[in-house]
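Consider a protein example.
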Amino acid sequence: MSKQKNQETGQDVLNYIADVPSTQKQADSLQLIQWMEQITGHPAKMWGPSIIGFGKYHYKYTSGHEGFAPLVGFSPRKKAMSLYVFTGLEKHLHYLNGLGKYTMGKACIYVKQLSDIDESVLKNLIQQTIRFQETRYGRV
């Protein structure tokens, strides 16, 4: 079985953010940390070299692959902020209504800056995603 790529590390979150070259992304990161810690009740932790995650859940696929992942998280990437706050399921697309200016991968939301999106819609999306993850995988 292959080793899980992104695991919790001991890396300091604030030191990581201080090294982000964009002062806008630094400020947005600090705001996201405040919101996500408040919503999840979990402190920010580094997952792998560049993901800031909050809480965790244990997953196990039918293939036998299993591991831990953060309930929600983000990464201040060069091109855009990657927000890991969505299940990727079609039945949850309505939670994105009114979010604002973003693009999307399968389950990752990309925003240039937080001012491009609606704070209340994002917070609701985070809450719904956590509810789904905990219902599906349980609490850790």
